[in-house]
Amino acid sequence: MSRRTALVTGASRGIGLGIAQRLAAAGYALTLSARKEEPLLHAASELADETGTEVAPVVGNLATEDDVRQLAAAHEERFGALDLLVLNGGVGSAGPVAETKMKTYDLVLNVNLRAQFLLIQQCLPMLRKAAAAHPSHGGKIVALASITGVAGEPGLAAYGASKAGLISLCETVTLEESVHGVTATAISPGYVDTDMTEWKRDELGQESMLSTADVAELVLAITRLSARAVVPNMVLTRAGEQIWRA
Ligand SMILES: NC(=O)c1ccc[n+]([C@@H]2O[C@H](COP(=O)([O-])OP(=O)(O)OC[C@H]3O[C@@H](n4cnc5c(N)ncnc54)[C@H](OP(=O)(O)O)[C@@H]3O)[C@@H](O)[C@H]2O)c1
């Protein structure tokens, strides 16, 4: 059987890097992307050295349509097919509806939803190809949504709206693309301990936050499902007394 390949966005740190590490250890050849070149190249070369897997870094901004198209094209040129697309790259933003500037709203929606829609479009031919080559496994999409996309959270309106849209997008992709062997899963965590949530660390306590390893574990589980099985959305909540809060 030919080796499996995955494309992971936002893979230079945080959750994306944690997922990339687990996929590399599982033998996936990888395309990794982020905006800043130096941390991305560093992460890619460390992963390649540690696991011996092929890792291709592609610098690009998800807010730029050409960069998103170029990212998919770079994976296709190097690997041909795509077994797993991980839509992880995203941006956080906090502020009440009454005070959120439309510029902020547009940025959040562009990076967290519009780019994901476009990248799915660009990758579908490669995912269908992988599914045709491995029909029992299929082609899979995993999208990092958020618990704020499942239950609204005060102060996270734009972010939550973008993630609710992403959960819906995953459902529709599964409904439309299962016939071609391609399915999508959203993962919806509460606060995970990364750079994105540094502003919450003191308030919540670092030890109460989810770990990137917890999220990566779910992604690995999804990769092991057969093409017959789909989990539309996995909510990962912090232990404690507030199940549906971030
Ligand atoms: N942390 C949480 O509590 C939490 C909870 C639920 C869901 N999530 C979601 O999980 C995903 C990863 O979050 P994280 O906490 O790991 O974030 P993070 O630590 O801030 O890392 C974000 C990653 O995405 C890249 N990135 C950011 N903006 C980008 C852009 N415009 N274009 C291309 N790449 C971009 C970053 O690299 P560059 O800066 O170099 O571009 C970095 O590699 C996000 O979609 C987030 O919304 C996070």
Structure, explained:
There is one protein chain. This protein has helices at about 15-25, 35-50, 65-80, 100-135, 155-175, 200-205, 210-225, and strands spanning about 5-10, 30-35, 55-60, 85, 140-145, 180-190, 235. The chain has about 250 residues and is an alpha/beta fold. The protein is globular. It has one domain: Rossmann fold, CATH 3.40.50. The chain has 7 helices and 7 strands. About 45% of the residues are buried. The structure holds NADP nicotinamide-adenine-dinucleotide phosphate. NADP nicotinamide-adenine-dinucleotide phosphate binds near residues 12, 13, 39 and 111.
Bound molecules: NADP nicotinamide-adenine-dinucleotide phosphate
Q: Can you identify the CATH superfamily?
A: NAD(P)-binding Rossmann-like Domain
- How far from one another are the termini? 41 Å
Q: Spans with pLDDT under 50 lasting ≥5 residues? A: none
**Major sheet: size, sense and barrel closure?**
7 strands, parallel
Structural class: alpha/beta
Shape: globular
Q: What Rg, in angstroms, do the CA atoms define?
A: 17 Å
Protein name: SDR family NAD(P)-dependent oxidoreductase
Family: Belongs to the short-chain dehydrogenases/reductases (SDR) family.
Based on the model shown, name its key terms:
246 residues; binds NADP nicotinamide-adenine-dinucleotide phosphate; seven-stranded parallel β-sheet; 7 strands; 7 helices; 46% helix; alpha/beta; Rossmann fold
